[in-house]
Amino acid sequence: MENIAVKTAPEVKKKEKHPVEKVLIICARGTLEDVYAALVMANGALMEGMEAKLFFTFFGLEAIRKGHSDHLHTATVGNPAFMPKVPTMLAGLPGFEALASHMMKREMDKLDIPPVSEFFEIIEASGGEVYACKLAADMFHLKQEDFIPEVKDIITVGDMYALAEGPSTQIVFI
Length: 174
What we know:
Blueprint: E1 22-27, H1 32-47, E2 51-56, H2 88-91, H3 96-110, H4 116-125, E3 129-133, H5 134-139, E4 151-155, H6 157-163, E5 169-173
Parallel strand pairs: 1-2, 1-5, 2-3, 3-4
Helix pairs in contact: 1-4
């Protein structure tokens, strides 16, 4: 009898388990590019099966205030990576920041990136959690009712660290 080589189906590559199981993303700035960075990272973590929690503090609170989420601006002054050929003085002219923000939002629309408010809804629906910093909220005289509905709670820094419990948690600061 002749040996016949049996061909097997190519081995299906199993999705590797991430060494990171949970991310805590701290957003301290309220610029369009910083808030989107936090949202994209949280959404990516959720899509990879990780837990994702967002903690907004100081000027990052602007992103989670009712009526403010979709009106964030791009930082043009002091941001050398934004249009590197544009002199800093020009970037500070009235209306330039609004123009730059409009251009950035238009490019994101082309890529079908949702507006900030919709991104928060997606993250919450995917199991992500959003928190506001108690110290910053107190400093700016903000209460729970001042925030978007996706904000689960206003918590202290100690509470935030408790969210990061576990050896496989990464903390990302934006």
